[in-house]
Amino acid sequence: MSKAAELAALIGSQTALSNRNLVINGAMQVAQRGTSATVGPNGTGEGYTVVDRFQNSLSGSVVSTFSQSTDAPSGFANSAKIEITTADTSLGGTEFWNLRYGFEGQDLQSIAKGTSDAKALTVSFWVKSNKTGTYTVELQDTDNSRRNSLAYTIDSSNTWEHKSLTYNPDTAGSGFANDNALSLRINFWFVAGADYKSGTFYNGTWGAEDNAKRVHSSQVNLGDTVGNEWYVTGVQMELGEQATPFEHRSYADELRRCQRYLYQAEFTTGGTSIANGAMYNSSEIFCHISFPVTMRSPPTFSSSSVSNGFRAYSAGQSDDFASWSGIQESGTTGHTIYKDSLSSTGNAAGWVQAIASGAYIRFDAEL
């Protein structure tokens, strides 16, 4: 594309030059939970485990390692990587596996879905795999039980390729709910049994939910050989029929966007102060955690269980413990958490540090 054509595409894309990418963390920069996890078999490791905002969904015997990789095309530092560790060459009809991304409905109102003014959507991304052939990317409208899928081809083994897929406007049905709940998913398919590809493929046109139409009939089985790999980065979804250059955002910007869905404080070298609080009595410390951004919904709380991973300080004394006891108060801007069975002086100020590798507190408000 010439510079003039590229500028014209940007100006005519129906969106501003910034904030046109509806996907958060499309460059796979942020991985608060960790950089590697085992996925499979039969749903093991399903959900959000590595790069923020992207989750695996699967059923079947294929096992893989899901990781944040530094193998990336020019202009990117990271990608998400799938590597097969246990293969399945004979898929059952209901076996499936995809990597998916979810959107809040209130962030999709400009699409005008379900009206005569509905907009086309273009999904673009960089992809690389040793397994060439046909793959599927699906849009799933969870509000109205409607779906749309398109296929792309990996042409050259172990080569970064840029793909762009445009989905027709959906003027039928209803629009996306204007709230903070899940309304739309992007699903990148790797494995699909016959039940998902036996019908007439959607092929860019929206239709009522029908499992048989979701995946292209020539979809490869990424899980057929140990060592198969698939990488993706630069994931972008925008309004209109033209894929524009990827909208790069700073790490700080992407992190804050991700923290609407997950906030994690963890041990770093030398120890990390994670909360201020007070000894309510001689055995319980209560600490308030203020989130860096307002979260999507009141999050669930979890913590590591590393032996002596945390240390509570109060009145010149300290107590080490492995995990927190629970939540006292919860909200979208902060939580009050507590630890009991300590031994200190009551009615005294205190604070807690993460003092061991692997120690963390986590607040999860993902879709």
How would you portray this structure in words?
By secondary structure, the chain is mainly beta. The chain folds into 2 domains: 3-258, Jelly Rolls (Sandwich), CATH 2.60.120; 262-364, no CATH class. It is 5% helix and 40% strand. The protein is built from 2 helices and 22 strands. A hairpin with a 5-residue loop joins strand 14 and strand 15. The mean pLDDT is 94.
Across the major sheet, the strand order is 18-17-21-14-15-20-19
Q: First CA to last CA: what distance? A: 37 Å
Rounded to the nearest angstrom, the radius of gyration is 23 Å
CATH superfamily of the largest domain: Galactose-binding domain-like
State which percent range the strand residues make up: 35-45%
Unreliable spans are: none
* Number of distinct beta strands: 22
Structural class: mainly beta
Q: List the helices and strands in order.
A: HEEEEEEEEEEEEHEEEEEEEEEE
Q: What would you say the CATH architecture of the largest domain is? A: Sandwich
How many separate structural domains?
Answer: 2
CATH class of the largest domain: Mainly Beta
Silhouette: globular
Observed structural traits:
single chain, 367 residues, mainly beta, Jelly Rolls, 2 domains, seven-stranded antiparallel β-sheet, six-stranded antiparallel β-sheet, 2 helices, 22 strands, 5% helix, 40% strand
Concise synopsis of the structure shown:
With about 375 residues, the protein is mainly beta. It is about 5% helix and about 40% strand.
Tell me the layout of helices and strands.
Blueprint: H1 3-11, E1 36-39, E2 54-59, E3 63-69, E4 79-86, E5 96-104, E6 121-129, E7 133-141, E8 146-154, E9 161-167, E10 182-192, E11 207-208, E12 229-239, H2 251-258, E13 262-266, E14 272-279, E15 285-290, E16 300-303, E17 310-314, E18 317-321, E19 326-329, E20 334-339, E21 348-354, E22 360-364
